[in-house]
C-alpha cells in the first residue's frame, strides 16, 4: 500500500490528450487563471489577498509527505496556521521541523489521524474541536493506493475507506465548524477534495457501492479510480447542500497531476530511454503538484466557485458520471446510511 502521489506508472497513460492540449500542457501555457501546468504552489499563492484579512487556519490530511507536506509548507509560509492530520507522526514532526526552520513564526499543529478508521476520524475531530480554533480551509488530501486487496479495521476495502469514507466522515463532523467560522469572520470557507484524472476510467456499470466496500473482483487501479470518482461526487452533493443552506463555504475537487516519485523512476529500467524521457515530461514536481490545491484554497479568483473540478490551476471538465447529480446524491445517501449504521453499532 502506498500514497496516491506514488501511484503506479500506468496512470501516466491517462495524460494522453489531443496534440494541441498536450503541447499546451508541456509548454506550461497559462489558462484563464493566469497559471498552468508548470506553476508552483509558491507562485499561485504569492499575491493571494485572502491572507491580508485575517490569520487563517487550514487543516490538511496526509500532510506528512508528498504534495500534502508541500501544501502545508507553502500555506504556512503565507501566514496560515496549519493543522496536519497524519498516520505517521514521526514524519509529521520532521515536516513541522522543516517548515519552522524555513518560517520560524509558522504555527504547525500535529494530530494523529488514520482515515481508514472511523474511530480514529472521530477522535481526531474531537481533538481538533477541543482546540477551539477557527477552520477556514479543509484540504482532504490524504490517499492510498493498494495493489492487493486489504481491509480496514472496519472491514471495508482500504482504498475506498481511506480515500473517500474517512474524508466523508471528517467533512461531516467539521462542516458546522467551517460554516460557523465563515459567519464569524466574514471570510469564505473552502473545502478541497484531492481527486485524480483517473476518475474518468470508471464507467457507470462499474460503480456499485456494496461491491466497492467488499472489494469484489478487486483491482488496485480500478479501486483507486473508484475512490477518486467518489471524491468528486462528494463535492457535487456537498456543494448542493451548502448552497441550500446559504452557507458561505465552497467545496471543489482538484487533480494535482502525476507527480515525480521514486516509484515512477523505478520503472525506468522497463522502458526505453526515449519513452521514459517523453513520459517524464508529463510528470510534475511536488510543488507543481501542490499548486492547484493551493490555488483553489486561497485565490481570490476562486471565490464563490463551488462544486467544480480543477486541474493545472484552472477549472476543467470531469467525466459525465462525476457530473451526475443523481449519482452524487445516491452515493451520499448510501454513505450516510453506512456510517450511521456502523457508528451506532460501535456505541452499543
From TrEMBL:
Transmembrane segments: none annotated. The keyword Oxidoreductase applies. GO terms for molecular function: oxidoreductase activity. CDD domains: retinol-DH_like_SDR_c_like. It comes from the Eukaryota. Belongs to the short-chain dehydrogenases/reductases (SDR) family. This is Short-chain dehydrogenase TIC 32, chloroplastic-like. It comes from Clitoria ternatea (Butterfly pea).
Amino acid at each position: 500500500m502506498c500514497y496516491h502521489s506514488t501511484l503506479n506508472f500506468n496512470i501516466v497513460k491517462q495524460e494522453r490528450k489531443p496534440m494541441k492540449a498536450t503541447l499546451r500542457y508541456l509548454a506550461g501555457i497559462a489558462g484563464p487563471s493566469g497559471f498552468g501546468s508548470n506553476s508552483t504552489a509558491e507562485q499561485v499563492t504569492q499575491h493571494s489577498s485572502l491572507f491580508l484579512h485575517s490569520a487563517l487556519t487550514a487543516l490538511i490530511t496526509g500532510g506528512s509527505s508528498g504534495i500534502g507536506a508541500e501544501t502545508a509548507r507553502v500555506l504556512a509560509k503565507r501566514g496560515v496556521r496549519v493543522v496536519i492530520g497524519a498516520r505517521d507522526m514521526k514524519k509529521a514532526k520532521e515536516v513541522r521541523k522543516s517548515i519552522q526552520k524555513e518560517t520560524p513564526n509558522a504555527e504547525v499543529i500535529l494530530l494523529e489521524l488514520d482515515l481508514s478508521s472511523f474511530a480514529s476520524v472521530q477522535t481526531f475531530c474531537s481533538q481538533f474541536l477541543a482546540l477551539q480554533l477557527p477552520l477556514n480551509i479543509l484540504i482532504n488530501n490524504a490517499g492510498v493506493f493498494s495493489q492487493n486487496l486489504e481491509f480496514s479495521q472496519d472491514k471495508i476495502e482500504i482504498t475506498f475507506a481511506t480515500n473517500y469514507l474517512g474524508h466523508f466522515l471528517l467533512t461531516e463532523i467539521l462542516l458546522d465548524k467551517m460554516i460557523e467560522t465563515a459567519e464569524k469572520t466574514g471570510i469564505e470557507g473552502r473545502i478541497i477534495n484531492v481527486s485524480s484524472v483517473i476518475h474518468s476510467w470508471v464507467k457507470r456499470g462499474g460503480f456499485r457501492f456494496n461491491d466497492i466496500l467488499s472489494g469484489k473482483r478487486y483491482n488496485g487501479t480500478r479501486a483507486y479510480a473508484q475512490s477518486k470518482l467518489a471524491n468528486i461526487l462528494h463535492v457535487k452533493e456537498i456543494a448542493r447542500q451548502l448552497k441550500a443552506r446559504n452557507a458561505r463555504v465552497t467545496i471543489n475537487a482538484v487533480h494535482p497531476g502525476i507527480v515525480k516519485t521514486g516509484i515512477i523512476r523505478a520503472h525506468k529500467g522497463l522502458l526505453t530511454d526515449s519513452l521514459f524521457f517523453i513520459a517524464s515530461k508529463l510528470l510534475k514536481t511536488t510543488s507543481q503538484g501542490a499548486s492547484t490545491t493551493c490555488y483553489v484554497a486561497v485565490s481570490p479568483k476562486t471565490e464563490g466557485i463551488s462544486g467544480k473540478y480543477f486541474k493545472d490551476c484552472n477549472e476543467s471538465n470531469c467525466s459525465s458520471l462525476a457530473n451526475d447529480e443523481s449519482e452524487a446524491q445516491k452515493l451520499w445517501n448510501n454513505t450516510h446510511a453506512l456510517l450511521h449504521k456502523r457508528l451506532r453499532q460501535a456505541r452499543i
